[in-house]
Write a structure and sequence with these properties.
Elements: H1 3-24, H2 34-45, H3 48-54, H4 64-76, H5 80-92, H6 94-105, H7 108-120, H8 122-126, H9 134-152, H10 158-170, H11 176-189, H12 191-194, H13 197-227, H14 238-248, H15 257-277, H16 281-304, H17 320-332, H18 340-359, H19 369-378, E1 387-389, H20 392-401, E2 409-411, H21 422-427, H22 435-443, E3 447-454, H23 459-471, E4 474-480, E5 484-491, H24 493-496
Parallel strand pairs: 1-2, 1-3
Antiparallel strand pairs: 3-5, 4-5
Helix pairs in contact: 1-5, 1-7, 2-4, 2-20, 3-4, 5-9, 6-7, 6-9, 6-17, 7-17, 9-10, 10-13, 11-16, 14-15, 14-16, 15-17, 15-18, 16-17, 19-20
Length: 497
């Protein structure tokens, strides 16, 4: 094989190796947080068949990822590395998907640029290291996009790949349905694909048939979301910031978040100007294919959130590959004098900085629960002194890291602001205490008590903590960045007076 043909293969393999290393490196540095421990609890209590039959422990997600995780832990166990490794392996499949999608839509240069950006994009690394369904959603939907692009290019494998990728994505995250619906706007609006309507419509019918077993569960879970959910209503400008989040996730320091958002939007704006100058209608259509997937999903979720808040940025990972391919395609097809290449290089540098921040504690979502558990065990009478948890977010992770200390633990029932539904807590076997019950207990409590404060604790629980600290002197106060504080107080008759 000539050297000029071998070199790109070496480059591609090198990028895949780097991508694998970035996703494995530091896999256990950060503690498991609430969502990840929820995944672990679900697969420890229910088998794969039960997850498909009864839903995910009363929660609002499809069952496929949890069923795969159940199978995975039977082979690997439930260590932090084992739990997260499934997402790592799945996320690695997104790298060739980004490459192939960009090659079909644009050209090989765009494919290489897309692979580079997908390799270093902090969003794809961050959620490759989380025991949740996000890696499976963006990998499956990326391959579904490859299937549609292959149908456009007349490839025989396109329809089958689209059916498989779209079906997996729908069984992984319901918002994938918004992306698939948005892409159909492009299919109907672009005449060459409209002419092939029999191909993609027959694929849609097959996807619908494969999804029938999940329909009733989907309707039930959707009804539960519309009755009330913990997510706050989004700002009308939320999609503006979400585009940057799809590249950087939460890895950038707070002061640099506006810089990351501006960098992505500036490159998109330059891409848009360059696309207007291009004479190739196919290139513009390919670029719009990606943007319709991204903004169609974000705007649809924003509109639905008027009725029921579902707008959670980390849930839009399924369109992360499409923003990567859109940026790469715009740069690859840019005119010679366009600043797009310089902006792309700056974006890669910013991504590298985000990765460095990601590997360095603290993490905004993942407090050091492993260390908190170790410190609690080191305190005197650790198994006998009661622990009061003022927020769901701290309680559930401690069932993983300190199960031996949960017998005397109490969790406040935060009512509508709870992160899980009441039935889900019951299925997980976790008892919560009303605010009135906690108040009555604290009013008569004597002796040592430990209280775990979690950032985002509701005002009612913060008031309970302030009243307790005013009545009972604090013996210890241990701070854990970014927002967990452990208090040890002592209550007796003299402090009551």
């Amino acid at each position: 094989m000539p050297r000029r043909q071998r070199q790109p293969l070496h480059l591609l393999l090198s990028l895949l190796i780097i991508g694998a290393w970035l996703r494995v490196y530091g896999l256990s540095v950060h503690s498991l947080w609430f969502d990840e421990v929820f995944s672990q609890r679900v697969v420890s209590l229910f088998d794969a068949l039960a997850l498909f039959q009864n839903g995910v422990a009363g929660d609002v997600h499809p069952p496929l990822y949890f069923a795969l995780l159940w199978l995975w832990v039977q082979l690997t166990g439930e260590s932090v590395v084992a739990l997260r490794m499934l997402s790592v392996l799945i996320a690695l499949l997104a790298l060739p998907a980004c490459y192939h999608l960009a090659r079909l839509l644009f050209n090989r240069r765009a494919a290489l640029l897309a692979l580079i950006l997908a390799t270093f994009a902090p969003y794809q690394v961050y959620y490759a290291q989380e025991t949740r369904q996000y890696a499976l959603s963006f990998t499956a939907l990326a391959w579904a996009g490859v299937g549609l692009a292959a149908m456009w290019r007349g490839k025989r494998y396109g329809r089958l790949l689209y059916v498989v990728g779209a079906t997996i994505s729908l069984y992984t995250h319901y918002i994938c349905g918004l992306t698939i619906a948005a892409l159909h706007l492009w299919l109907l609006g672009y005449s060459p694909m409209r002419a092939k309507w029999r191909q993609w419509l027959s694929a849609d019918v097959l996807i619908a048939l494969l999804y029938l077993p999940q329909v009733f569960t989907f309707l039930s879970q959707t009804s539960a979301v519309f009755e009330g959910f913990w997510i706050r209503p989004p700002s009308p400008l939320a999609p503006v910031f979400s585009v940057g989040f799809l590249i950087f996730a939460i890895t950038l320091p707070e002061a640099l978040i506006p810089l990351g958002v501006v960098a992505v939007w500036l490159l998109l704006a330059v891409n848009a100007l360059d696309m207007r100058r291009l004479r190739q209608a196919e290139v513009r259509a390919a670029w719009l294919f990606c943007l319709v997937a991204v903004f169609g999903t974000l705007i649809s979720a924003l509109i639905i959130s008027i009725r029921a808040p579902i707008y959670s940025e980390r849930s839009f990972g399924m369109v992360a590959p499409f923003i990567v391919v859109a940026l790469a395609g715009g740069v690859a097809c840019a005119p010679h004098r366009s600043p797009a290449r310089l902006l792309y290089a700056a974006l890669i540098v910013t991504c590298t900085g985000g990765l460095v921040a990601h590997y360095t504690p603290p993490d905004l979502l993942r407090p050091p629960f492993r260390q908190i558990a170790a410190d609690l065990r080191a305190l005197p009478d650790s198994e006998r002194v009661p622990i009061l948890y003022l927020h769901d977010g701290a309680y559930l992770p401690m069932t993983y890291y300190a199960p031996d200390l949960m017998a005397n633990a109490r969790l406040v029932f935060t009512e509508a602001r709870s992160w899980l539904y009441p039935r889900t807590w019951e299925l997980l076997g976790i008892q919560r205490y009303s605010r009135a019950e906690i108040a009555a207990w604290l009013a008569n409590y004597q002796g040592t008590l430990r209280v775990v404060y979690y950032g985002g604790t509701l005002p009612e629980e913060e008031a309970t903590l302030r009243a307790l600290l005013a009545r009972c002197p604090a013996q210890r106060e241990l701070d854990y960045l970014p927002f967990v504080i452990l208090y040890e107080v002592h209550c007796d008759v003299r402090s009551d007076s």
